[in-house]
């Protein structure tokens, strides 16, 4: 199970960064927008990963996967768009200056 272990640090960093951004303004709105983005990205991942795998553009060694799949796509593939949907806005919120420059 190599791929689940490879995904784990990305998920953990995303969770920590998102939690740290909770004290920044508009957290609830950011999470709502991230949720919508996550649904869209997950749907696109489901469609296009399945198409690419069906066309044999790439394969995964089964011994490195968890065994859980959505269609032909391993569930591990869905962690990256989820991390992007929540992690990127959280990083931007943390990098944004909260007080006006003098």
UniProtKB/TrEMBL annotation:
Indicate the principal place this protein occupies in or around the cell.
membrane
Pfam families (UniProt xref) = Lycopene_cyc
- Which topology term describes how it sits in the membrane? Multi-pass membrane protein
Residue ranges of the TM segments: 6-23, 35-58, 78-95
Q: Where is the Lycopene cyclase domain?
A: 10-94
Pathway the protein contributes to: Carotenoid biosynthesis
List locations, semicolon-separated.
Membrane
Please state the span of the N-terminal signal peptide per the UniProt entry.
none
Q: Which UniProt keywords apply?
A: Carotenoid biosynthesis, Isomerase, Membrane, Transmembrane, Transmembrane helix
Q: Which NCBIfam families match?
A: CarR_dom_SF
Q: What is this protein called?
A: Lycopene cyclase domain-containing protein
Organism (species): Microbacterium wangchenii
Provide the taxonomic classification. Bacteria, Bacillati, Actinomycetota, Actinomycetes, Micrococcales
